[in-house]
Amino acid sequence: MSAAVCARQAFRSCTASLSSRAIGRSAQALVHPGRRLAMVSRQYSDDKASPTSSETESNHTPAEPDAVEVSPESDLLAKLKAKEAETVDLKSRLQYLQADFLNLQRNAAREKEQQRDFAITRFAGDLLETADVLGLALASVPQSALAPSETSEDGQLSPATDSASASSSKSSQTHLTELHHGVEMTHRLLLSTLFKYHVKPFDPTGEKFDPNRHEALYQAPIPGKEPGTVLECQKVGYTIKDRLLRAAQVGVVQDES
């Protein structure tokens, strides 16, 4: 009996508490109706504004450009133009290289020719002294000594010549003439051999003095001669092709003033 009474009292107390809570909530809703409306309107405004911002972002997004389609013909044409430009460049380079090679060949041939022509320069210079000695030997015998010996009015030789002829089969004049001819032939042969290798003598007597080709040994005032001209050539000069091998040793006319 007592247990049933206790259960009833507990049920009543729970029911009373639940009813008091519901009454309090309803009273709050009645007391603050504006706050609830504000909250509902704020939530509605936020939900409405969110699609606007998304639309704005979508408007600011740049539009992607349409992809340009390249046809196979235009691609092949571009490649063909590139190959043509490369061909022109390679052709110009080949022409430059060919011109350089031809110049190199010409220079090499010219140097080879100069080496061949001037290879005997030192040897020819040593032979010039021999030619000078032969020339001096020829100049030491005057032409009058090579003339035939004089005969007397009756057609007989002079006594000196007659006695010399008696002592030898040949006269001294004959020996001298033959010696002169032999030296002259040797001198001429030597000069012809030098001429074969483009070594040529030159005698500047009477020419204007040139310090590049002449070597002045002395100066002398000569009346009637132009000052600065070559008066005498004691040693002839020599050239090998267009190059000076030895300068001519000369005497120069001096100015009288």
Q: What layout of secondary structure does this protein have?
A:
Blueprint: H1 2-31, H2 33-60, H3 72-117, H4 121-139, H5 159-167, H6 172-196, E1 199-202, E2 214-220, E3 230-235, E4 237-240, E5 243-246, E6 248-253
Parallel strand pairs: 2-6
Antiparallel strand pairs: 1-4, 3-6, 4-5
Helix pairs in contact: 4-6
Tags for this model:
257 residues, alpha+beta, three-stranded antiparallel sheet, three-stranded mixed sheet, 6 strands, 61% helix, GrpE-domain-containing protein
In short:
The protein is an alpha+beta fold and 257 residues long.
Structural class: alpha+beta
Task: Please work out how many helical segments DSSP would assign.
Answer: 6
Mean pLDDT, to the nearest integer, reads 75
Order of helices and strands: HHHHHHEEEEEE
Q: What is the strand content?
A: 5-15%
Q: How far is it from the N-terminal to the C-terminal residue, by CA?
A: 181 Å
Number of beta strands:
6
Largest sheet: 3 strands, antiparallel
Weakly predicted, low-confidence segments: 51-58, 163-168
Shape: rod-shaped
**Helix content estimate:** 55-70%
Q: Largest beta sheet: what is the strand line-up?
A: 1-4-5
- Please give the radius of gyration in angstroms: 66 Å
